[in-house]
Amino acid sequence: MAGALQAAGLLVWRRRGDQVQVLLAHPGGPLFARKDAGHWTVPKGEVGDGEDPLTAARREFAEEIGTAAPTGPAVPLGQARQKSGKVNTVWAVEGDVDVTAVVSNEFTMEWPPRSRRMQSFPEVDRAVWFDLDGEARVRIRTAQVVFLDRLRARIQGAPDPVQPTLDP
């Protein structure tokens, strides 16, 4: 996977009764304002040159959600390639995070297109807890469903399911 853009993220999860929930983030900005199912993501971001991927994952979580990541053990969920070619490396961390007031870092883009006006938008406009075996599968990007499957296997005590996945 050398040469591909590398991103690292944390799939934070918690138990609520007999349900397992995962925290997913909705991308901000005008391109995603009306998009929902299939567009939510594990909070993640680019790994800097020479940066430890887990350190990058924790940093990106804090930048995108606006609060420090839970400090529990980080369980590797492996890698998966998105359609864009970006390779995501994700860890699962059990914990609870208040998502009622997400404060994300921002990006700047020309908006509206060809207007020559630059505007700032949050990278993440909201984060929500979704049931692992229900709504999370509908909301998350297709290339990231594999991380939900790997988390489910880990929670159920199945043999290590972590294998790199190169989704088309």
Give structural notes.
This protein is an alpha+beta fold. It has one domain: Nucleoside Triphosphate Pyrophosphohydrolase, CATH 3.90.79.10. The protein is built from 3 helices and 9 strands. Strands 1, 2, 3, 4, 5, 8 and 9 form a 7-stranded mixed sheet that branches. Strands 6-7 form a two-stranded antiparallel ribbon. The longest helix has 13 residues. It starts with 5 loop residues before the first strand and ends with a strand.
Helical coverage, percent range: 10-25%
User: What's the CATH architecture?
Assistant: Alpha-Beta Complex
For CATH, the homologous superfamily is named as: Nucleoside Triphosphate Pyrophosphohydrolase
Per the principal axes of the C-alpha atoms, what is the gross shape?
Answer: globular
The CATH C-level name is: Alpha Beta
Task: Sum this structure up briefly.
The protein is α+β, with helices and mostly antiparallel strands and 168 residues long. It contains 3 helices and 9 strands.
List the main descriptive attributes of the protein structure presented here.
168 residues, alpha+beta, Nucleoside Triphosphate Pyrophosphohydrolase, two-stranded antiparallel ribbon, 9 strands, 17% helix, globular
List the helices and strands and how they pair.
Layout: E1 6-16, E2 19-27, E3 44-46, H1 53-65, E4 75-81, E5 87-94, E6 106-110, E7 118-122, E8 124-131, H2 135-139, H3 145-155, E9 165-166
Parallel strand pairs: 1-5, 4-9
Antiparallel strand pairs: 1-2, 1-3, 2-8, 4-5, 6-7
